[in-house]
Specification:
Blueprint (H helix, E strand, L loop, with lengths): L12 H15 L5 E7 L2 E7 L1 H7 L1 H8 L9 E6 L3 H13 L9 H10 L3 H37 L6 H6 L4 H4 L4 H8 L1
Parallel strand pairs: 1-3
Antiparallel strand pairs: 1-2
Helix pairs in contact: 2-3, 4-5, 5-6
Pfam family, one: BTB
InterPro entries: BTB/POZ_dom (IPR000210), SKP1/BTB/POZ_sf (IPR011333), ZnFinger_BTB_dom_contain (IPR050457)
Keywords: DNA-binding, Metal-binding, Nucleus, Repeat, Transcription, Transcription regulation, Zinc, Zinc-finger
């Protein structure tokens, strides 16, 4: 009797694998590459794993696959014109699939993703920039609509903007020709 095949799939395994690789990197265990980053005199070195970098970055994949065997088991890669903080964020992203950066750094993260040919980070930055742009456009639209409604209110004679009407109740005696002053003139 033949049994049907079943799929054994773990939803947590990819996350657990990333977490374990990140811990190994942070502790410096099994790291086989050091990436030296320098930008405007600021330099830092980052130990990492070739397999993780090659799997997430076509740039690193090309570098490691074109290495000569005489380089030994441990490699050094030098990156100029990449800010230290940006590369640290890049590493955190490739090892954890997430990173928190300030809004004004998103463009720089997109640039490093393109430079290092990291499709996942590039797509993530692009989607975030798209959301940020849509948010700004929505704010501009709301502002424009509120400006138009205020202008329409000012253009209608006798119309008082709602905010002003709530603050200042109308003075009937001064505004109406038939107020108390006009009636007293009629009696005389």
């Amino acid at each position: 009797m033949e049994s049907n095949p079943v799929l054994l799939e773990s939803k947590s395994s990819p996350i657990n694998l990333l977490n374990e690789m990140q811990q190994l990197r942070l502790l410096g265990h099994l790291c086989d590459v050091t990436v030296s980053v320098e930008y405007q005199g600021v330099r830092a070195e980052f130990p990492a794993h070739k397999a993780v970098l090659a799997a997430t970055s076509k740039f690193f994949k090309e570098v490691f696959l074109n290495e000569k065997p005489v380089d030994g088991p441990h490699s050094n890669v030098f990156l100029n014109e990449v800010q230290v903080a940006d590369f640290a964020s890049f590493l955190e992203f490739v090892y954890t699939a997430r990173v928190e950066v300030e809004e004004d750094r998103v463009q720089r993260m997109l640039e490093i993703a393109e430079k290092l040919k990291c499709l996942d980070l590039s797509e993530t930055c692009f989607q975030l920039k798209k959301q940020m742009l849509e948010s700004v456009l929505l704010e501009l639209q709301n502002f424009s609509e509120s400006q138009n409604s205020e202008e329409e209110g000012a253009a209608r004679p006798g119309a008082v903007p709602a905010a002003k009407a709530e603050r200042d109740p109308p003075d009937c005696s001064a505004a109406s020709p038939e107020g108390p002053a006009a009636k007293s003139k009629e009696k005389v």
